[in-house]
Amino acid sequence: MFLIKKTMVDKRTGKKTHVLLNNGHSEILEIPHENVANKLCDVMNENSDSGHSYEVIDVLNKNKNK
Domain residue spans in the chain? Predict the structure, then answer.
């Protein structure tokens, strides 16, 4: 499972704020395929006019094989 993290930097203080992207139901957006997550992340980084950055996070589910 893959998530996308948005990083925002306050230009005055340099403080970073990290948030996970949500879907249309106010739940964390979970993307099952890495290539899809990477493509979405690339598009969002290319279109970020506010200087925010996006990165893909790989989430391991330890209970998946139980």
Answer: 2-58
The answer to whether the predicted template modeling score (pTM) of the entire model surpasses 0.85 is no
65 pLDDT more than 90: no
* C-beta contacts of 27-30 below 8 A and 24+ residues apart: 28/3, 29/3, 29/4, 30/1, 30/2, 30/3, 30/59
Backbone angles phi, psi at 56, to 5 degrees: -85, 135
Predicted confidence (pLDDT) at residue 2 exceeds the cutoff of 90: yes
51: confidence class by pLDDT, cuts 50, 70, 90:
confident
d(CA 4, CA 65): 24
